[in-house]
Amino acid sequence: MAIHMGGVTLTTATAQTSSSLHSSKAPKKIKQKHSGLLPQNRRRFTGQTLPQGRRSHSAFRDLVAIVILFMLVQENPRKTRLSRRSRKQIRRKTFPLILDANMAKDSHERSPLLKRHKKQKDDEEEDKPIQPASRFGRTFRKIFTSQAHERKSTEEKEDEFETNAQGLREVYAGYPEKHIFRHGNGVKTSKYSLLTFPFLNTWEQFRRLANLYFLINSIIALFPSISPVNPITTILPLAFVFGVTAIKEAWEDWKRHRADHKVNSFNCQVFDLQSGKFEKVKWSKLKAGHIVKIKEKQQIPADVVLLSSSEEKGIAFVEASSLDGEAGLRRREPLKQTADLNNEEALKEWLQQGVIVECERPNERMSSFEGRIKFEESNEKFQHESDREEESEESGQLPLTMKQMLLRSCTLESTEWAVGIVVYTGHDTRTMRNAKSPQFKLSAFEHSINHFLILLLVYTLIIMVASALTGTLWQNSQDDSLWYLPLSDSPFITFLMLLPTFLILYNVTIPISLYVSMEMVKVALTFFVSHDIKMYDEGSDTRAKPRTSSIIEELGQIGYVFADKTGTLTVNVMKLITCSINEKLYDFPRDEEEEEGESVDTRAENPEKSQNILEYLGADGKGKKGRGGSDDNKDKVDEFMFLLAICNSVIPQPNPDNPEETLFAGSSPDESALVESAKKAGYVLQSRTMETVKINDEEYKVLNNIEFTSDRKKMSSIIRTKDNKIVLYTKGADSAILENLTKDDIRQKTEEHIKSFAENGLRTLCMAKKEIDESTYKEWNDKYKKASSSLRDRDKKMDEVSAEIEKDLELIGAVAIEDKLQKKVPQSIQTLRDAGLKVWVLTGDKLETAVNIAKTANLINPEEMNVVTVRKDDGDVIEQLQKAKSKWKKNTGEKENALVVDGSALTEIFKKNKKDFYKTSKQCKSVLVCRASPLQKSEVVALYKEMQKKKLLAIGDGANDVSMIREAHVGVGISGREGMQAAMSSDYAIAQFRFLVPLLLVHGRWAYKRLSKLVLYSFYKNITFCMCQFWFAYYNRYSGQTLFDSWSLSMFNTLFTSLPILVVAAFDQDVSRRSMKDYPQLYRESIDKPSFSLKWATLWFVEGIIHSAIIFFGVVFLFSQGAITSHGHDFGLWTLGTAVYTVVIITVNVKLALEVNSWNLWILASLVFSVVIWFVWLALFSFVPPSANALFNDNVLYGVPIFLLRSYVFWSCCILLPFLCLIPDFGYKYLRRRYNPFNWQIVEEIEKFGVDQEKRPKKEKKKRHSNRTPLRSVSEHYSNIEL
Question: Where is the signal peptide (predicted)?
Answer without folding.
Answer: none
